[in-house]
Specification:
By secondary structure, this protein is α+β, with helices and mostly antiparallel strands. The chain is 22% helix and 25% strand. The chain is globular.
Length: 703
Amino acid sequence: TNATQIARRALQAKAKEHITSADEADKAAGRKLSGTPPSGSTTALGSPPRILVVYHNATAAEAGRRRLGWLSDIVDRLKDAIKEHRKMRRSHVDILELYVDPQNPANITEFQKNVDEICSDESVAACEEDQVVKATGTVPNDPSFGNQWGMMSIGAPDAWSVTTGSSAKLPNGPVVAVLDTGVDYTHNDLKDNLWVNQAELNGQAGVDDDGNGYIDDIYGYDFRNQDGDPMDDAGHGTHVAGVIAAKGNNGAEVSGVAWKAQIMALKFLAADGSGLMSDAIEALEYAVDHGAHVTSNSWGGVRFSAALYNAIVANMKANQLFICAAGNEGYDNDAMPDFPATFGIPNMVTVTAHDEDGHIPYWASYGNETIHLAAPGANIVSTVPASLFNESLYTANGTSMAVPHVTGAVALMLAVNPDLTWAQQKEVLLQSGTPLSENDTFLTVTEKRLNVSKALQMTASLTNAVSYPATATVAAGATVNVTVEVDAVTAGQYGATLDIHSGGSSVESSLRLLALGGSSLSPALPASLSVGKSAVHVPSPAVEVPIANGGTGVLAVQVQDVTGDHANDFEVLPPRGMIVTVSPNQESHLVKVRCIPSKSGTRTATLHLATNEGSPAGRDITTSKTLTLTCEGASFGVSPPSIRERIPSNTANTYKIKITNEDAVKGLMYCAQLGMDTQIPTAPDYVMTTGDFFWFENKTAEN
């Protein structure tokens, strides 16, 4: 399977690391960014191979975990192979660290058996290799506020005349989870705006006082090093946290967008800015379990992952907005997808950067269909650990800096109205923006940049507090049920908070409702969809499946399966089991198909979908739809289509690329070119062992 091949490549990469001499290992361990990190979290690489097991749903996860436990008990080889097993209950993902014998790193066969054993069960939707991600009115008296052009650009002074980040319902401010390199929780401008786990703060050191599975997680957690100290060893996370919530109007340094938000420090990136996707998934689950209202995600750069997709969907179900960076490669993300930025999950807001003149810089990635909004991201002054930079402020560029401006805006919106659903938060952000300059109008979905002042005006209009002077008496040991009826006039997301008071105490319950109503897949799906033509073994560009909702309720579409003799030649995103929702009178661009032909000629398969059409309440996704998929495999092929290897420093490796010509008449001419990023000063050396142009008749060329 693909999962086995991926896992095998991971082991091969691991083997090369073990073969490296001790001297080379010391050199590798010494490669760090400027400054000396206080912990050993230098890089995301070098850990045991991790496999992410994605289950179809909660029932499948329960069954799959029972099976895995049973197998581990009776198969000694498997029991010894699983070094660690972490279970993500919200996203139905298991994170498995598999042991590799350092004395025998080339033993791929044993590793393959273990992966096959784990991933072969019908409860498993996907198995993936872990991936490495990288880090992408009232004026305060803070001395460096004059350098914070971004705050003026988004209309923050006017917004601060409405709120600075707290309210009667949120007296300590909204909780913002920052998934990054950590946060300097001793920084003078941040130490008063940190989320605090009171049970651990007042508990015993070295003890899991609150029983959540994490020891001493006072300000958050370090998922990279698996300890309770999320101290920043790079500066990136502290810079992001400062933009969101540096304490304002305190006469010190800078001001954040939300002066009174609580920063939950979730470290999963190492000092070099890289981190494991599995740690990000665990951090997202922690954020939900511990009450975060929104997550800030200035990182990315991975292939499509069903595990990460599931994790973000789980956060959506918990009413969390996921705000992430577009990337700093200057790419059109519509044509060159970068994940998680281009997942297209409804609760996501993907942000690019703009400069002081309101223009999107050349280095900021963009996309008319995938990037929602622009925010200040050039020459941004914010907080950093003085221990690393010899100063407590630093100026940085990047879409990483744009994300926290939007996250801080959401924190202010929640201070005004804590009952906002993620859908309302997103709608306000996208509708309230300021138009971009004419030259940048086609670079984002909204063609707008952040305006927090207008966002707060729209938020205030959504507040609808109703007082019910109902009283009830509950006898000792008895239970009284409180029934809340919601009259959903139109389809959409509804939210409210129920406050119950008794004497001097009170309890609060958050209510969320998705009113689906009647939906209609209109116009109907075409009978067939052509995915185009591609070389053998080379993925074609993705083609969208046209899905439009002509009804009054939310349309739900589930990807069920791809069948047929050539089913393995087609890849559908999102993968099997995932559900896409489409609002009334809207179109979806989320379901996409690409072809990876295994042979030349016409390739066909059938895509099976299910919708909630015809369901009285819109809840049952049982109406079947099918679509015939076709593509053409060219008469030539390239194998493998990509090479992804980890090579130790000061070593060399040789890779062979096979080019095949199946045409019975014509010869094939091809050109081999190597493109390098000249902006990377430490770019490795590549050597082409043959000339640039080749011509051969009907045969296979291998170089």
